[in-house]
Amino acid sequence: MMAWGTTQLIVTAGDTEQQKVIDHVREAGQGHVFKYWEELNESSRASLLNQLQQVDLTLMAALHEKFIKSGHDSQKKGDLKPADFINLPTTEQQQAAYHQAKKVGEEALRAGRVAAFLVAGGQGTRLGFNGPKGKFPVSPVKNKTLFQLHAEKILALSRKYDVAIPWYIMTSETNHEESVEFFESNSYFGLGAGNMMFFRQEMIPALSPHGKLILDAKDHIFRNPNGHGGSLSALKNSGALDDMKGRGVDIIFYFQVDNVLVKMCDPVFLGYHIQEDAEMSAKVVVKTEPAEKVGVLGCVDSRLGVIEYSDLSETQMQARNADGSLKFQAGNIAIHILNVDFVEKENEGGLRLPWHVAHKKIPCLDETGSVVEQDQTNGYKFETFVFDALGDAKRTVILEVDRAEEFSPVKNKEGVDSPETARRDLGNQFRRWLEAAGVAWSVGKDAIEISPLFALDAEDLKEKLPSDFQISTGVYLA
Ligand code: UTP
Questions:
Q1: Domain membership flag for residue 431
Q2: How many other CB atoms are found less than 10 A from the CB of residue 182?
Q3: Which residue is closest in CA terms to ligand 1's atom 18?
Q4: Is residue 416, in this structure, part of any structural domain at all?
Q5: Distance in angstroms (rounded) separating the CA atoms of residues 79 and 81
Q6: Per-residue pLDDT at 389 exceeds 60
Q7: Which of 1, 133, 339, 405 is the residue whose CA sits 20 to 30 A from 470?
Q8: For position 164, which CATH number holds?
Q9: Ligand 1 pocket test, candidate residues 117, 118, 123, most atoms within 8 A of CB
Q10: How confident is the model at residue 34 (pLDDT cuts 50, 70, 90)?
């Protein structure tokens, strides 16, 4: 038995390991997490200790010191410069380079060098959907889920290039089982279980303004997924990188779960990345207006990264180039290519991506020990961001893409970047492809859907449709 303040911590005989954990937690000034110890049964105690064992208390103390005690954001903001990028092709020369890149990318796909990698460990708080965001139904006619749309794109590419494209999916403690179960119950959408690997990212506790861990149950500490930057260590620790190497994969196509328009394993992007011998690359869209809330690719003191919109001053945000375009215009859309070797290198000696902090509402216990959802911010969450690795890459390709064709994320319940805008943007894309294929149509607003298994882009569609094809009612092309 050991004492902690006025609370008696009863440790079962022989459990010196448990006692060590308790001592360690107490010495780190986090002993309040044992407030309900006496009420807990054996399994709850074991569970609490198990959670505590996974917490890096030294890191938590450092985060408290850096982000909370000495003012939230002590991240250095130095000299900012916009990043150069490859523009959408307009001239003949640019078109030729674009087609050459596509060929190179297609070769890599055919040779089985490319894996798809989805980060889906986020909590999707803004959408407020009960379940993994990937299970959100979104397509305009068939109401296909985000997961299904992504799966069908990968399957279509596998068929097109006659190669199995392995798909790695990062989940988190909050949604792992439900995500895996969804794929199982849908027979992996025809991709084959052997071509898919699911793994969890790590979690990190939130802190109170006083730097304390937060209980959201008597035997449970509130933790959140450690950000999409955590994907780089999760790829390594889960064995995914080794699995890739075993399959002959050396290039990872990284995408996020919420973008309904993602151009999966885009051969053009792959081609530029390969030709430039890049280690990590990024796709961007040109910002629509100075105040658009999107991070821009840029250099901070010569280091490439993403500059958050809140880190641009009003003058920087409004600044224009001689041709009238915005100076900071390369909006990050969170689509990357990473070399397997680069991810290995990032993990050498432990991942060192910087931490970012966000002031959030965190459920916690009231005086009676009941959990209470908060209506005010009451604590701090910490995350790492994958784009912070861009600055470590020896070479990088930044490629501009057409927003209407490639970027429409489901972030919010309504309004901007919502299911409604995603459905609209998908519908508009299908309409454009049909027009480009010379199809006459006269149907309602949301009544068109083209399965990725039918066509992956306008070119595909043109090839597949008979020249006299016509549409008069709501349609689903599969
Ligand atoms: P967001 O930053 O949009 O977060 O994630 P979110 O969790 O989806 O939504 P909010 O902010 O809670 O409303 C962008 C992508 O990064 C993944 C998400 O699953 C999404 O695909 N992500 C985010 C992770 O995989 N892990 C994380 O820790 C955070």
A1: no
A2: 18
A3: 122
A4: no
A5: 7
A6: yes
A7: 405
A8: 3.90.550.10
A9: 123
A10: very high
* Closest ligand 1 atom, residue 118 Cα: 21
Query: What residues are in contact with ligand 1 under a 6 Å CB criterion?
Result: 119-126, 133, 170, 201, 225-228, 230, 256-258, 383, 411
Number of the ligand 1 atom closest to the C-alpha atom of 171: 25
Domain contains 171: yes
Token pair of 416 as six digits: 């901007």
Q: Which of residues 444 and 252 earns the better pLDDT score? A: 252
Q: What is the pLDDT of residues 233-272, one digit of tens each?
A: 999 999 999 999 999 999 999 999 999 999 999 999 999 9
User: Which pTM was predicted?
Assistant: 0.94
| CA 166/CA 363 separation, integer angstroms | 38
Domain that holds residue 236: 73-401
| 189 inside domain | yes
Residue 73 has pLDDT above 60, yes or no: no
Q: Where are the beta strands (DSSP E) in 120-232?
A: 167-171, 196-200, 203-205, 215-217, 220-221, 223-225
From the CA of 91, how far away is ligand 1's center (Å)?
Answer: 37
Closest approach atom of ligand 1 to CA 126: 13
Question: What one-character DSSP code corresponds to residue 66?
Answer: I
Q: For ligand 1, atom 15, name the residue with the nearest CA.
A: 256
pLDDT score of 6: 40
| Residue 13 backbone class (left: φ over 0; alpha: ψ -120 to 50; beta: rest) | beta
- The protein residue with its alpha carbon nearest to ligand 1, atom 4, reads 122
On whether the CB atoms of residues 102 and 108 are closer than 8 A, the answer is no
Ligand 1 atom closest to the Cα of residue 127 is 13
Specify the range with the lowest mean pLDDT, choosing from 15-29, 135-149, 204-218, 321-335. 15-29
Q: What is the mean pLDDT of the chain?
A: 93
**Measured in angstroms, how far is the CA atom of residue 76 from the centroid of ligand 1?**
24
Query: Given CA atoms 126, 129, 132, 137 in this order, what sign does their dihedral have?
Result: negative
Mean pLDDT of 337-350: 98
Atom of ligand 1 nearest to the CA of 255: 21
- What's the domain count of the chain? 1
Calculate Rg over the CA atoms of the chain. 24
CA of 16 to the centre of ligand 1 (A): 39
411 CA to centre of ligand 1 in angstroms: 9
Q: By alpha-carbon position, which residue is closest to atom 7 of ligand 1? A: 122
